[in-house]
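Suppose you are handed a protein chain with no further information: no name, no annotation, nothing but its sequence. What can you learn? This example shows the usual starting point.
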Amino acid sequence: MRSRSSITLHFRAEAYDHPSGYVDAGTVMSWLDKVGYAAAATWAGSNVQATYIGNMKFGHPVPVDTQITAQARLIYTENTQVHVQGRLTLPEVLDDDGEPTVATWVVMVYEAVDAKGHPKQVKPWEPRTEAGHKRREVAKARSIEHARGEDALGQVSFPDPAETTAEVVLLCFIAHAAQVTPGFRLQGGTLMSWLDEAAFVCASRWAGKPAVAVFAGGVQFYHGVYVGDVVEIEARIVHTTERSMYLVVRAWSGKPEQRDLRPVAQSIAIMVVAEEGKAEPVPSWHPATEAEKQLQHRTIELVSMRNKNVYEWSTVEVP
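A reasonable first move is to predict its three-dimensional structure. Written in structure tokens, the prediction is:
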């Protein structure tokens, strides 16, 4: 039987979980990870682990109490990696052409692992249409560019929270059994949801009003998080414009008895304060030290690079 190269899942968010009337970015990211994981694992024939979740621009808010469709399809395979393109659509919210509104789309990279958690080769994916071949070529080129640019933040130092005027928030979570994959590793979507929560708290405190995400910039996963692990997440303001806040969000994990935790993930978020669909002005922040200036510069540079690496879901049918 031929392995499937595309998957569709359906979700629905209840109003009591989202009192604002709209679904938070963390939940959206977890849905996309679920469908991406399903597509990658189905193709690999084994468990897979998220290693990278690309840029997400939230082009349309996701309302509660409505049907949500999450789709994922393969676009590229290489050695142990499966590259998947995903999107979230709203079948009950139609665009000007009468088509389901696309809320966001993203490219996700997973690594196939065997029963012992070791990386394993995956069979090559061969497109069957011209559009599929084009998507594969774009994905291959973007993969090379991604590898070149992802160490941008790793080369700068982060000022101690006590030594910066920027808003810095630290949240703590514990990984539970209900949140893990078959390999007992925390679901990538759960960790992304926690990263979003930290960004939300940090941006909301800085602005003095509830903030929402308009951009989630490439979650890079370094190590796995397992059942019982403590996860500490730091979110900090690194740049502001008149109406937006740029944040770098980092996560560490380890056993509860350990003091030295290892880094497990890092991402960038852009948050705004939205009233009646329009972004409001936010308090400005300016770097005061050379380290803060370097961090600001590298973050803006990385957002720009990732924006160039975003490509929309084609209207061509899934191969």
